[in-house]
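Need residues for this backbone.
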């Protein structure tokens, strides 16, 4: 009997293998992806089961902590959510109509995503605006702990049993699905709203709420990162998802940063010192999240507000994301803020990165090229800049000795730039230096002729008015 069973399995496998061989490359790729998806679903059932067990333990722990609370009817947000999810599942299955909602919920392990769907649609039923602020904060923190517990347990289960999982390329984990991200974003948005109403609360309450929001932000951004990565690996269109990820990342990190800044304020020296220690710890946590998810605006604020150039340089070395990474973002910020001296000094440590950035700003590029001992290139840059017609590639700052904004180049500006180009060409000592010098001299003569023509026009205009 065992031999026959083995033989049948062998024949099934052999037929499957032959079918794969007859598929086109694209069909074979899709077939492998479907097979890996099926195996992942099986393994994810173990993740969800482990997450359910941890959720039950969390629920029991919260019940124990609130058992002595006289307002216990307002402290069971997870229980209320379980009741809503269980009620929906019970109504959809006739055989479960006589079961308890909680029993139905815990029996539907494979439908754990319904927790987040309910969180998105029914959050206002679980946390009502009519509740006192204290209970709104408490219930939001409980739901945050629930989301973090579910996702962290699933991730840890996957890490511990990774040898049993299929290759992850192109597969989207269940905790990265849209319904899960939307549920957590709804909760996170509500918690951001609560941040604006916490000014009168004590420091410990603010700190507890901030820590709950912080860990929720971490798992939410990880879910977005996983979803984007899977789409990229499948070569699917992901522009919209990426834009959503960036916008929500910046919203969350900016709110956390504003909360961190608020801890720096104190009414006394002792309180101010304590708040600075808290802010330093929270800044460190926020820095790690922003660095992992390329939250360049938050990284810049953390460095700029504390005037920490050492940290700024360290992050510029570490963060090498798309389009130049954090270094390119810093260059843009300094240029827009007209911090030109700081920008050029960074070129000493990041010469190649700054050279790439300054290609769009030739008014400063020639200075960097001089620093790099590329006098011939600096001459070319100055020559092009002198003959430019003021298009968008030329910055408003054109005077090498002054950073006063100008809308267009005057003839005096052009003559000065041509003379600088001439000096740089002589310093370059390249084989084609003589040819460059002749072109520059020719442009200087043309410019001189333009000046005389303008003077003649002015004289004729004066004479015409006189007579």
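Answer:
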């Amino acid at each position: 009997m065992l031999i026959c069973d083995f033989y049948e399995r062998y024949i099934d496998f052999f037929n499957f293998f032959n079918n794969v061989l007859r598929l086109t490359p694209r069909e074979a790729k899709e077939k492998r992806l479907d097979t890996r998806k099926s195996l992942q679903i099986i393994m994810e059932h173990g993740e969800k089961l482990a997450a359910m067990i941890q959720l039950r333990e969390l629920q029991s722990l919260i019940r124990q902590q609130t058992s002595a609370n006289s307002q216990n009817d307002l402290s069971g947000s997870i229980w209320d959510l379980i009741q809503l999810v269980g009620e929906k599942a019970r109504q959809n299955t006739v055989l479960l109509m006589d079961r308890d909602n909680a029993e139905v919920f815990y029996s539907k392990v494979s439908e754990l995503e319904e927790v987040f769907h309910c969180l998105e649609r029914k959050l206002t039923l679980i946390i009502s605006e009519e509740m006192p602020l204290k209970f709104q904060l408490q219930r939001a923190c409980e739901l945050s702990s629930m989301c973090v517990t579910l996702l962290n347990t699933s991730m840890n289960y996957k890490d511990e049993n990774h040898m049993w999982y299929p290759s992850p390329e192109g597969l989207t984990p269940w905790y990265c699905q849209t319904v899960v991200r939307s549920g957590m974003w709804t909760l996170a948005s509500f918690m951001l709203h609560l941040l604006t109403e916490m000014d009168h609360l004590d420091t410990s309450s603010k700190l507890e709420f901030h820590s709950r929001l912080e860990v929720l932000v971490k798992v939410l951004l990880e879910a977005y990162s996983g979803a984007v990565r899977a789409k990229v690996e499948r070569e699917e269109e992901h522009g919209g998802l990426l834009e959503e990820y960036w916008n929500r990342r910046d919203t969350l990190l900016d709110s956390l940063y504003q909360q961190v800044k608020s801890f720096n304020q104190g009414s006394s020296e002792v309180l101010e010192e304590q708040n600075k220690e808290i802010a330093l710890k929270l800044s460190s946590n926020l820095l790690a999240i922003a660095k992992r998810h390329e939250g360049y605006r938050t990284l810049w604020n953390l460095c700029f507000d504390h005037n920490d150039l050492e940290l700024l340089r360290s992050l510029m070395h570490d963060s090498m994301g798309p389009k130049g990474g954090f270094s390119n973002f810093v260059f843009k910020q300094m240029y827009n803020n007209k911090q030109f001296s700081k920008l050029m000094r960074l070129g000493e440590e990041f010469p190649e990165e700054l050279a790439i950035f300054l290609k769009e700003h030739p008014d400063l590029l020639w200075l960097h090229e001089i620093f790099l001992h590329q006098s011939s290139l600096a001459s070319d840059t100055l020559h092009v800049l002198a003959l430019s017609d003021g298009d968008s590639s030329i910055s408003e700052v054109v005077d090498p000795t002054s950073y006063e904004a100008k809308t267009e180049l005057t003839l005096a500006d052009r003559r000065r730039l041509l003379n600088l180009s001439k000096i740089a060409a002589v310093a370059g000592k390249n084989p084609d230096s003589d040819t460059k010098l002749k072109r520059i001299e020719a442009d200087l003569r043309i410019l001189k002729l333009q000046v005389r023509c303008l003077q003649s026009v002015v004289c004729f205009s004066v004479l015409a008015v006189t007579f």
